[in-house]
Amino acid sequence: MIIRESCTCPLEIVHDIIKGKWKTMIVYQLKDGNTSLAQLERDIDQITQKMLLQHLRELQSCGIVDKIKTEGYPLHVEYYLTDRGRRLLDAVLIMQEIGIDYMVERGQTELLDRKGIRYTS
């Protein structure tokens, strides 16, 4: 991930941080607290472990996500949102609402129903 050195707007920096297919979904999945890598893999359809680890490292390098390693065998690692990550989560939740509204307007509610996502028609 490359974050530009100079910019004309702070949104360019945020775009650099969250661009990529999976980053906003990772932030969303961490909304309820500490989560293991295996649980994130299960919760995010079609993400590979390689891509998940890459995006987690990038989000960690920007101070959005951090991890806790539990000593012992087997090693257990949990990821969580930092303060900055929780602020970003507020924006991700708004984006989720916009996506839901868009899908409802177009009658694309099958996925919402299947995933148990609440909406009003």
Automatic annotation (TrEMBL):
GO molecular function, one term: DNA binding
All residue ranges annotated as the HTH hxlR-type domain in the record: 9-107
Keywords: DNA-binding, Transcription, Transcription regulation
PANTHER family documented for this protein: TRANSCRIPTIONAL REGULATOR, TRANSCRIPTIONAL REGULATOR, MARR FAMILY
Identification of the protein by name: Transcriptional regulator
